[in-house]
Design brief:
The protein is mainly beta and 380 residues long. The chain contains four helices and 26 strands.
């Protein structure tokens, strides 16, 4: 009997140790679960008179790379789309933000939940549109240092707190752009594509992803077009998706004043309901850049790859302005030519076998005008 007890005693000790370890494991899991906390934002949707609007579709968009949930981001970057909500009978909807990184939400929650970052609520209802103040959901200002100052967040920041925060999403009637597209001789251009959008300022590396309220149309037989209900904040116009292929937008008449370049960013004036403009398009690319590439003995360098960095604006406004390029090669005489839609050349680069790379940058104040290059390459 004594021997049996001595034999069972170690087993009992092992069982006690195992059970204790299991209990400790369960206890240690509780603090981990407790870290999955949330902060709530209550959105109150109202019309221009301040009356509540039930049944309005409200969307939440994140602007940071970790919180990016843009209008068409799913197809472009294989990330989730916007979060969607509907205002209740009192015109309200409640949104919970997780106190964790958005990229971890699937692992932690099994679904996509908005986490740390910067966000906006947007909504459309009939001819009314709304954009909320900037929602800042962070801890100790961790994300604030990345924010850029723009016209959207200058309207005010709303920070999430340990208790529900109430914001008002005021819907507004937009402005209309009434325009006409003509060629350089004044003849109407039918079937020309014109569109508009507004940019909440994506912090993704491409700068794209937070374009909202997109719409497009085509000119009629008289070259006329109308874009309606544009939210009364700065918006961008897009004239044809063909970019460097004619016809291209070259001049603008806006509110009765002419500009020698495309005016594709417009800020509505206070209480302005209609904006009238004329776009002049050219049947050919208007700017010509030519050059010749020679070696140190003044002989032509043949088939040398030439790259031109070109912007759509004098001051780069987006990722495309910083990264758009045109390519060609020198011919048997070492000559090359570019035709461009804009005169805003940012840099030129040449990389030819047997020669050192050549690159010339042009600052905004010293942008290269259409002219001729004479470039001599040197051997390394």
């Amino acid at each position: 009997m004594l021997k049996g007890n001595r034999f069972l005693f170690p087993i009992r000790i092992c069982l006690i140790v195992c059970v204790t370890s299991m209990l400790c494991g369960i206890a240690s899991a509780k603090p981990e679960e407790s870290r999955l906390s949330y902060r709530s934002v209550i959105v109150r949707v109202v019309d221009e008179s301040g009356d509540s609007m039930p049944g309005v579709n409200v969307q939440l968009l994140g602007t940071g790379r970790d919180a990016l949930q843009a209008m068409d981001i799913r197809s472009r970057y294989n990330l989730p789309g916007v979060w969607r909500f509907v205002s209740d009978a009192r015109g309200r909807c409640t949104v919970r933000f997780g106190c964790f990184k958005g990229f971890d939400s699937e692992k932690l929650m099994g679904s996509d939940v908005p986490g740390w970052g910067r966000f906006y609520f947007i909504a459309e209802a009939g001819r009314l549109r709304g954009v909320s103040q900037c929602i800042v959901h962070d801890t100790h200002g961790e994300y604030s240092r990345y924010y850029r100052d723009d016209e959207w967040n200058r309207r005010g920041l709303v920070r999430t707190l340990g208790h529900p925060v109430i914001i008002t999403l005021r819907m507004k009637r937009g402005v209309s752009v009434i325009g006409r597209v003509v060629d350089t001789t004044g003849k109407p251009v039918p079937g020309f594509d014109v569109g508009s959008d507004q940019d909440l300022g994506s912090e993704h590396h491409t700068g794209y992803g937070n374009e909202i309220f997109r719409q497009s149309t085509s000119t009629d037989a008289e070259g006329r077009f109308v874009l309606r209900d544009i939210f009364p904040n700065t918006f961008h116009l897009v004239a044809s998706e063909r970019e460097e292929k004619p016809p291209v937008w070259v001049r603008t008449q806006l509110r009765g004043k002419w500009s020698p370049v495309p005016v594709d960013q417009i800020t509505p004036r206070r209480r302005e309901r209609e904006i009238r403009m004329t776009m002049v398009v050219s049947p050919e690319l208007p700017y010509r850049y030519v050059g010749r590439i020679l070696d140190p003995e003044s002989k032509p360098v043949v088939s040398a790859p030439v790259v031109l960095g070109i912007s759509r604006h004098r001051r780069p406004e987006n990722w495309e302005d910083d990264h758009a390029t045109l390519h060609t090669e020198s011919d048997s005489e070492g000559r090359f030519e570019f035709r461009t839609a804009t005169p805003f050349i940012r840099w030129i680069g040449i990389s030819a076998a047997g020669f050192a790379d050549y690159e010339q940058d042009y600052e905004e104040k010293d942008m290269k005008s259409p002219a001729k290059w004479n470039i001599t390459l040197h051997r390394p």
